[in-house]
Write a structure and sequence with these properties.
heterodimer; A: 116 residues; 12 strands; 0% helix; B: 112 residues; mainly beta; seven-stranded mixed β-sheet; four-stranded antiparallel β-sheet
């Protein structure tokens, strides 16, 4: 069975400091992995995706994530937080090899707060 | 290029009524997904349409239904509304899920 676990429901950082949002996944097949961001009362925006190419994936707004198969992790990082990064972040897994059955599995979300 | 568009932005209904939400996918995308984001419950998969057919549905009662039109736009219908149906309903489209889903801004349904 496939699942995704976001290890922190809330993360608080100061502006200009690094951001780390943690995500572990479980998948029987080689998955695709995504990070989405949702600002208040908005839809979800795709930040980045991993689809079995380079393990270090660069996304928009300075975010990046590293796929580590041995640790089944796909943590999201950013070197320096900006106030506009305050939002909810979702780690998502799309299992492969499932005979055409396509359903993304969303993590519970991590709310990032950025303080001046 | 226009993104996924949803209407209405906000909808207020009373218990027992019916709600209809609409979604237009990105041009060229044939798959449409519906998700419910209720307070405290995260994102729950509702329905997946592809090429006009319902391909899969989540763990929701039959009063949640929908359809996809020949132009790939989609409609979500919720009958016999209950208070707990109050949520943000998100529509997404894709060519292939492994490339990621592209979401609209959502329709916020409030049931009084």
């Amino acid at each position: 069975a496939q699942s995704v676990t976001q290890l922190d429901s809330h993360v608080s950082v100061s502006e200009g400091t690094p951001v780390l949002l943690r995500c572990n996944y479980s998948s029987s097949y080689s998955p695709s992995l995504f990070w989405y961001v949702q600002h208040p009362n908005k839809g979800l925006q795709l930040l980045l995706k991993y689809t079995s190419a380079a393990t270090l994936v660069k996304g928009i707004n300075g975010f990046e994530a590293e796929f580590k198969k041995s640790e089944t992790s796909f943590h999201l990082t950013k070197p320096s937080a900006h106030m506009s990064d305050a939002a909810e972040y979702f780690c998502v897994v799309s299992p492969h090899g499932s005979g055409g059955y396509n359903k993304l599995i969303f993590g519970a979300g991590t709310r990032l707060a950025v303080h001046p | 290029e226009a993104g996924v568009t949803q209407s209405p932005t906000h909808l207020i209904k009373t218990r027992g009524q019916q709600a209809t939400l609409r979604c237009s996918p990105i041009s060229g995308h044939t798959s449409v997904y519906w998700y419910q984001q209720a307070l405290g419950l995260g994102l729950q998969f509702l329905l997946w349409y592809d090429e006009g057919e319902e391909r899969n549905r989540g763990n929701f009662p039959p009063r949640f239904s929908g359809r996809q039109f020949p132009n790939y736009s989609s409609e979500l219908n919720v009958n016999a509304l209950e208070l707990e149906d109050s949520a943000l309903y998100l529509c997404a489209s894709s060519l292939e899920p492994s490339r990621g889903l592209f979401f609209g801004e959502g329709s916020r349904l409030t049931v009084l």
